[in-house]
Amino acid sequence: MQLTIGKLAAAGGVGVETIRYYQRRGLIDMPTRSGGDGVGGGIRRYDADDVRRLKFIRSAQAAGFTLDEIADLLELEASDDRVRVRALARQRIDALDEKIAQMTETRAALARLADQCAASDKGPCPILAAFDP
User: 1-63: what fold?
Assistant: First the structure.
């Protein structure tokens, strides 16, 4: 399988600029041009490994990993350091638990404000008043 950058982007569900950004970050290799790197050089071609790596990056992002953490995961994939991979996963779980707790608090506060707003038609709306500095 030989893909242009546009086809690689489509296969991964991202834009071409995202591929280029990942390349600048060192997450995806930039292949050499098929006709050389000079003026009028050929087109860069990507293969199935590039598609797999792009999908790995997107899946890891969906799980909440940062691009720096994903770079670590990609390095660890080559070394098969399961202890470090587990440690990164547990860190991500802790961060998600913290975010869930914050969102639960925010939801509860907003629900209280909505109840207060519904309890009376007089005076300023408690929801709007809570957002007013």
Answer: Multidrug-efflux Transporter Regulator; Chain: A; Domain 2 (1.10.1660)
